[in-house]
Amino acid sequence: MNLVELKEFIDAHHCSDDTSWQRVVFDELFEMFSVIPIASGVYSGNTTEEIADERKVCDLKAAKIPNWQQFCIERNVTKPNWGDKIGICTGPASGILVVDVDDAAAFENFCRVNNIDSKFRTLTVQSSTEKFHLYFKYPDDGMDYRNRSQGNSGCGFDIRGNGGYVLGPGSIHPVSKSFYSILAADEIAEAPDWVKLWSLNRTLPASDPDAGSHASSNGLRDKLSHLSAELRSRIAADVGVGKRSEVSISVMEALIAEGFTKEEVLDVFLRHPVGAKFREKGMAWFDREFEKAAAFVASQTKAQKSKSLDMSLELYATMQEFRYYSNDGKYYCKCQMGKGTVFLDIESQEYSGMIFSRQAAKTNSTGTTQQMRAALSRLKFHALDNATPVDKICRFKQNDHGLILNLARVSGECVVITKEGCSIVPQPDILVQKDADTLPIDHIEFGCNGLHACDAMLELMGITNMYDQHYLKMLMVSWLFEKVATPILFLIGEPGSGKTTLASALKGVFDPTENGGAYLPETMLEMALVLSKSGIAYVDNFTDLNKKIQNGLCLAFSKGYFPKKKNYTDTETVNIAMNCPVILSSIEVPHALQNDLFSRMSFFNITKKVHIAESDLNDELNKLYPKVRGELCNIAVQILNIIDNFKALGIKRHGDFDKLGQAYCSIVADEKMYKMIMKYRVKVDSIAVIKTSNIIDVFVKFIESNKFMFATMTDIFNCLVKICDSNSIGNMNPATLSKEIRKYSSLLESIGIAIIEGGKVDSGRVYLFIAEDHVDSNVAVELEKIKLNPSLICKEYCNINGIK
Questions:
Q1: Judging by DSSP bridges, how do beta strands 488-492 and 601-605 pair with one another?
Q2: In terms of DSSP bridges, do strands 764-771 and 708-712 run parallel, antiparallel, or are they unpaired?
Q3: Residue 467: closest CA among 668, 651, 674
Q4: Which of 403-407, 441-445, 798-802 shows the lowest mean pLDDT across its residues?
Q5: SS3 of residue 435 by DSSP
Q6: Phi and psi at residue 75, in whole multiples of 5°?
Q7: Measured at the alpha carbon of residue 510, what is the angle toward residues 605 and 140, in degrees to the nearest 5?
Q8: What is the distance between the alpha carbons of residues 506 and 581, in angstroms, rounded to a whole number?
Q9: How many helices and strands in the chain, by DSSP H and E?
Q10: How far is CA 665 from CA 410, 482, 651, 662, 677, in A?
Q11: Average pLDDT across the chain, whole number
């Protein structure tokens, strides 16, 4: 149905005792807008007090689902089970901005005073007598148009934008018990400027005091035109929350001193930005403050015009119109620039330029650099006491509010993940950072269940082993938890095997960047600076790094920072924080890395090349990414609720990751599965490390080919000499071989190579070497008996070799 047909259908059926017609209407609205289910029922009370008491127990206009705000941005594609009401989410998902009129007479007066034509030709829904909703198109200009309540200001309406909803046609009103009907089935019109400005908490289009309006008298227009430029700029300027009372009262006093009557002051406050506080608080506030201002002016003796303020003081006054934040001893100004909100360092040229620009708009004079420095000196003292501490974020942040994912959008939006759910919020009070090659995350589908898209992505990349898939999904979820020390993912494979493709695909889930974002730092400081500003750092060809930088990476992950200090000076050490996830890749596992760094790595041997064209692969990934992100965010919500129920398992360098992994496994399968996955990973990682020692790698293959052996180290050495090349043996002898085997003993045990010590013979101590995964079950039983009685090892060795 179109709107006209829908209106006719509602008009024809709303008196019917059979309410099945509501479901027909709601199904049609589901196709038009992003909708949500609303609590069913009506209030039984007859008086205002009785209904208020019932509403305290159960709000019958409330949404039935949690985290419904996400459907203001992302359209709800799941059809709800309908009750007797439907909620239409306002905002970009439905493409609507709604004027919710609760007092038709007050709204008519508001339109008259502000020269607004009240004959709107747009979709209009009547909620009850003298109450209606005007539907307008949500502007596609990059601005965030949100809810705005007019409180008791007497305007008679509220704005419903991003983050809100209205009850739709066909819904029953819980108080009047009448059905919402379509009053006018006109096509939804473009949002007028006054609607957009009020949604943005700004004044009406005719905000220039010089412009006036038809409702103003000629005398008032003349008075406004003769005010000083400074006072007129204060009347017309938007003022941030926290400064409105001070500015409103000072303007009120100035107008009274200039001879304005109470009615004229009220007219100014109704029309211009200076009245923002009044429009929020209402007439009671205005009457009270006007009396105070009039008394203050009357108590003052008429003075000559004060000299104009020193420009540095004027610049300082302009600076104080903004809110300030602090991080690590630096101060930032939060302001609107372009299409989004940004934080500007008060020491930066961008900040000075913004202040000069604002000042020039007021007084046609910017001032000098020296005056700006003087103003900044004052501002630092002001910021010291008034700045709000905030965190910095590249991609991930974990604080008291939950998990935060920076979407790197111009508007500054972030995903906030809490125990209650996920939602996209406008620029939070957090210092959002990004590099020049950082790409925005445009789409996330929070409505996805399970991990089907994640599995499809990994299979597309050639990851088919179940344990590998689960481990990578755990790893990707852990990236959202900034305070969890996530393992370093190390991809190993020949050129062309798909290492870079896989790394870029994984990085692209939460940290898409131009050209995959791979880099190879040339200095330790360069690496530190990149790690401190990255979402997910990807170092390609890791073995090409020099030993100093490799060891520096270990230091970064051991202590979480890199100390930067100038040589031969008394400069204080600056710690550059490093806590971003890291992906490394190389043709082979690096030799002689510190054990501490090895213990933080998870090695993946990439042997299969993805048999799909790069353009087709990117198309498939881009289709999967929104669902993959949504699935991982939803899993993170569930993990937040249960992670504290688990304890670390004692795996070196995996404390917090242990808890997260067990929580993940308990959600998708069984918490015991985590131990199985980690056992498998320990074996895989041990094999990767063992391959860095040629002689130990050959030793393992030799024992596995023999399944089990009774031998001395000399015997083993002589056998290896026969099958190894000279480069593998080098200057080694039986004693140094023994030391090398002891060095790798824990890793050998992890891959199933058991070494049991027995007694001595003339040629040395005898050992039982067993490749436990390769022996037959019958043989394993006999060997187990010998392991329990090591004295038998020497006896068996002598029997085999004919020694008495």
A1: parallel
A2: antiparallel
A3: 674
A4: 798-802
A5: coil
A6: -65, 135
A7: 150
A8: 11
A9: 30, 29
A10: 36, 20, 17, 5, 10
A11: 83
Interval 525-546: pLDDT, tens: 777 777 777 788 888 888 777 7
**Residue 777 to residue 703: CA distance in whole angstroms:** 17
On the CB side of 607, how many CA atoms lie within 13 Å of its CA? 3
* Cα–Cα distance, 299 to 293 (Å, whole number): 10
To 10 degrees, the CA torsion angle through 553, 558, 560, 564? -60
Distance between CA atoms of 492 and 484, rounded to whole angstroms? 24
Closest Cα to residue 194, out of 269, 103, 271? Answer: 271
Task: Tell me the sheet residues that pair with 584.
Answer: 490, 539
* Closest to 687 measured CA to CA, from 772, 589, 587: 589
Relative orientation angle of helices 734-743 and 694-706, to the nearest 10 degrees? 90
Cα dihedral 452/458/459/465 (nearest 10): -100
Residue 465 tokens, joined:
């082993």
* Structure tokens belonging to residue 246: 């001070």
Report the residue count for the chain: 804
Q: Token pair of 538, please?
A: 């990807």
Structure tokens at 110: 């508001």
Share of the chain above pLDDT 70, in %: 88
What ranges make up the beta strands (E) of 369-487?
A: 388-389, 392-393, 396-399, 402-406, 414-417, 422-425, 431-432
Position 621: which residue type?
Answer: L
Give residue for tokens 């430029």.
229
Structure token digits, residue 710: 């009774």
pLDDT recorded at residue 560? 63
Distance CA 265, CA 299 (A): 19
Tell me the HSE value of 462 on the side-chain side, using a 13 A CA sphere.
16
Which range has the top average pLDDT, 122-131, 551-560, 585-594, 634-643? 634-643
Instruction: Evaluate whether 596 touches 554 at the Cβ level (below 8 Å).
Output: yes
Q: How many Cα atoms sit within 13 Å of 67 on the Cβ side?
A: 19
| pLDDT attached to residue 214 | 38
SS3 category, 576: strand
The Cα–Cα gap between 150 and 279 comes to 7
Whether 236 and 227 have beta carbons less than 8 Å apart is answered as: no
Rounded Cα distance, 132 and 643, in Å:
47
Cα distances from 358 to residues 240, 270, 354, 365, 511, in angstroms, run 14, 24, 6, 10, 35
Question: How many Å from the N-terminal Cα to the C-terminal Cα in the chain?
Answer: 100
Alpha-carbon gap, residue 43 to 118, rounded angstroms: 33
From residue 696, how far is each of 292, 686, 738, 740 by CA, in Å?
A: 89, 12, 10, 8
Kindly report the pTM of this predicted structure.
Answer: 0.56
- Cβ–Cβ under 8 Å, residues 679 and 651: no
Q: What angle do CA 311, 338, 269 make, to 5 degrees?
A: 60
Looking from the CA of 789 toward its CB, the CA atoms found within 13 Å total 7
Give just the sign of the alpha carbon dihedral 742, 748, 720, 784: positive
Beta-carbon-side half-sphere exposure of residue 42 (alpha carbons within 13 Å): 13
pLDDT at 220 over 70: no
Residue 182 dihedral angles phi and psi, to the nearest 5°: -85, 115
Spatial CB neighbours of 68, under 8 Å, sequence gap ≥ 6: 36, 87, 89, 165
HSE, CB side, 13 Å, CA atoms: give it for residue 251.
Answer: 32
Average pLDDT over residues 622-634: 95
| Contact criterion met (CB below 8 Å) for 355 and 315 | yes
Helix (H) or strand (E) holding 761: strand 753-761
| Three-state SS at 102 | coil
381 compared with 548, residue with greater pLDDT: 381
